[in-house]
Amino acid sequence: MTSANHKFSVKHVDSAEWTPGLRSDFEYRDLGIQEATGGAFDAHIIRIADPSADHETGVHAHMTDFQMIYVLQGSARFWFDGEGEIEVSKGSCFYQPDGIMHNALWMSEDCELLEIASPGKFETVTPD
Predict the structure, then answer these.
(1) Contact at 8 Å (CB) between 18 and 84?
(2) What backbone torsions phi and psi does residue 14 show, to the nearest 5 degrees?
(3) Following DSSP, what letter does each residue of 43-110 receive, concatenated?
(4) CA 75 to chain centroid
(5) Could you read off the pLDDT of 6-29 as tens digits, one per residue?
(6) For the whole prediction, is pTM greater than 0.70?
(7) Can you list the domains of the chain with their CATH numbers?
(8) What is the pLDDT of residue 51?
């Protein structure tokens, strides 16, 4: 049984489309979850589009009900308010609580991250 506003979805890797997204030096692969859940959730894969660019994102926070990142390949380093710097690599997973200030400091050229968030569209804020 499915929810009235949720529908079945499948996205195959051989028809994957990578598009610019929130940050111009990253590419995003939409996994169809936002459409399938009527906007309740989103899931996409993030990778580097421009290896020569500085991948630091600047300090910001996302206003979410749920946000997790799973490292599919490569490695990355982040800073989180109250936690300091963390380095993650293939197989690492982390949960970002609502509103936690953070900064992506560095990503390897082969880094790919799976991000799952709710709601599907959320606000990003920067410190005053």
Answers:
(1) no
(2) -70, -10
(3) EEEEEES-TTS-----SBEEE-SEEEEEEEESEEEEEETTTEEEEEETT-EEE--TT--EEEEEE-TT
(4) 14
(5) 999 999 998 889 988 777 778 999
(6) yes
(7) 19-125 (2.60.120.10)
(8) 74
